[in-house]
Write a sequence for this structure.
């Protein structure tokens, strides 16, 4: 049990330190807090300073083990308009928060850059589905630029 707690803590620390390192290196960074009921957490979008890549990291607390989480990055407020990236699904671990990071494809990065140039509002939607008959929880929020 101690090893599992340590491993989960290390994953969280790595996500936090990677995001902090990205912010300190001249990259563009946006964040959003996500909350509904007992499920809460946040997401960080980071675009590399050279413009050649971007990643979205998500961390959710209160998600039951084995819950499938789908993440989408949207061009528009509160996930109501065009989807930039919506292909990433992952399962919540047996213990600790559900964490995941994915990199945008070149096509998705191109759409993201256009949205940034147009000064569009960017948002993140996280949908957590607990099995075939379990409840579905959707969290949506608008990203805020940190730098």
């Amino acid at each position: 049990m101690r090893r599992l707690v340590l491993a989960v803590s290390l994953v969280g620390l790595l996500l936090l330190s990677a995001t902090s390192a990205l912010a300190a290196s001249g990259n563009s960074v946006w964040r959003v807090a996500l909350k509904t009921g007992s499920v809460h957490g946040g997401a960080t979008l980071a675009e590399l300073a050279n413009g050649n890549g971007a990643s979205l990291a998500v961390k959710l607390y209160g998600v039951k083990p084995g819950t499938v989480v789908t993440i989408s990055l949207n061009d528009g407020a509160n996930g109501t308009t065009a989807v930039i990236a919506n292909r990433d699904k992952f399962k919540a671990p047996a213990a600790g928060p559900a964490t995941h990071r994915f990199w945008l494809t070149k096509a998705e990065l191109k759409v993201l850059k256009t949205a940034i140039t147009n000064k569009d509002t960017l948002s993140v939607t996280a949908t957590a589905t607990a099995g075939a008959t379990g409840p579905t929880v959707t969290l949506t929020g608008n990203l805020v630029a940190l730098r």
User: Anything to note?
Assistant: The radius of gyration is 15 Å.
